[in-house]
Amino acid sequence: MAGVCPASAIAGTVMTVLVTGANRGIGLEMVKQLQSRGMDVIGTARKPGEAAELKATGARVEQLDVTDADSLAALARRLDGVKIDMLINNAGIGGHTAASFAETDFTQLDKTFAVNTLGPMRVTQALLPHLRRGEQKTVIQISSRMGSIEGNEGGYYGYRASKTALNMMNSSLALELGEQGFTCVVVHPGWVQTDMGGAGADITPEVSVKGLLDVFAGLGPGDNGKFYDYQGKKIPW
């Protein structure tokens, strides 16, 4: 990956990072580790009143439902004048995980796409003015290797497809915004021990997030549009 200066400070300014879905799991751990690296962090939650652990970090906490246009517009208004150097679109759901096509529930599929695919793009669009004010202009989509067409092992129709679609949306975004100095990437956090990943997953949130943040710190223009895992390895599309 193309290297840039360590992300805690640029030209004497503190980096501002916004993390969606920050009330638990990977998102919550990201808030903690980003703060430990000296960054200003904004964490969002659908129900901030129930996000006690997130509030306890001392980060700025904002309400956001990534599927709700009014919620997105309200967030953008509350952040008026705030620069965002890095947006981490972490909010997501396991959603539709039917093993066979015959079991596919298209109502659940709609919800999965609304959160996992359209949600990150809605957030990015709403916060573009804030990102344009930032120095880093970095957009991170938390995807999954399960969205890799080449690596498809079958099953999980809705979840896989929602992440594949997110990857393609980001690829187009990278082509458009790259000319404006943006770096837009998708990343696989690993199989992580969270409510979604389950207790039998490979790695802890702490390990996943440390790896991801190390990857983010090394991103540069040459990484725009790429797909990496939490160790910085390229994943096939």
From TrEMBL:
This is Short-chain dehydrogenase. It comes from the Bacteria. SUPFAM superfamilies: NAD(P)-binding Rossmann-fold domains (SSF51735). One of its GO terms (molecular function) is oxidoreductase activity, acting on the CH-OH group of donors, NAD or NADP as acceptor. The lineage of its organism: Bacteria, Pseudomonadati, Pseudomonadota, Gammaproteobacteria, Cellvibrionales. Gene3D superfamilies: NAD(P)-binding Rossmann-like Domain. Belongs to the short-chain dehydrogenases/reductases (SDR) family.
